[in-house]
Amino acid sequence: MKVYLLGALLGPLFITQVSLAQVKVDQATLDKGKRLYLSNCIQCHNKDPNLKGSLGPELVDAPLEIVYAKVMTGVYPAKLPAGFVPKRSSKVMRKIPKLEKDIPAIHAWIQSVKKKK
After folding, report:
1. Are 81 and 6 in contact (CB under 8 A)?
2. In this structure, which topology does domain 3-9+21-82+89-112 adopt according to CATH?
3. Would you write out the chain's pLDDT as a tens digit for each of its 117 residues?
4. Between vectors from CA 50 to CA 44 and to CA 53, what angle results, nearest 5°?
5. What angle do CA 54, 55, 61 make, to 5 degrees?
6. Cα–Cα distances in angstroms (integers) from residue 78 to residues 10, 12, 64, 70, 91, in the given order
7. What does pTM read for this prediction?
8. CB contact at 8 A, 42 and 26
């Protein structure tokens, strides 16, 4: 089964608008996303994205455009997606722009481990 993630325009956070391309999610993409998450994100977020971390919130409900904005800028976009409410008011997210091209893979892995409610 192939799953595709659609990106969104992020608006005024960037000098030029950024559009995330469609990403084919296969096992290699998920493996890469997991590896990158475990090596870059668990310092603040939980090893299990369903759970809160020491500084960062659980990530399974964060839309791709939120993950992209936070990783690239450290802040939420000026306009949040409909229905999205930040889980923490802290503003301690560090920018990790080296991950830009890999954010869809990280997000795909996070979504792949989302527990059913």
Report:
1. no
2. Cytochrome Bc1 Complex; Chain D, domain 2 (1.10.760)
3. 333 333 333 343 333 333 445 677 899 999 999 999 999 999 999 999 999 999 999 999 999 999 999 999 999 999 999 999 999 877 889 999 999 999 999 999 999 999 976
4. 20
5. 100
6. 9, 7, 15, 11, 14
7. 0.80
8. no
Q: For 25-30, which contacts have Cβ atoms below 8 Å and span 24 or more sequence positions?
A: 25/108, 25/112, 26/2, 29/104, 29/105, 29/108, 29/109, 30/105, 30/108, 30/109, 30/112
Token pair 């759970």 in the structure block, residue: 51
For the chain, what are the domain ranges?
3-9+21-82+89-112
Which SS3 state, helix, strand or coil, does residue 27 take? helix
Distance of CA 19 to the CA centre of its chain: 14
| The pair of three-digit structure tokens given for residue 38, joined into one six-digit string | 């475990």
Q: Locate tokens 């369903």: which residue?
A: 50
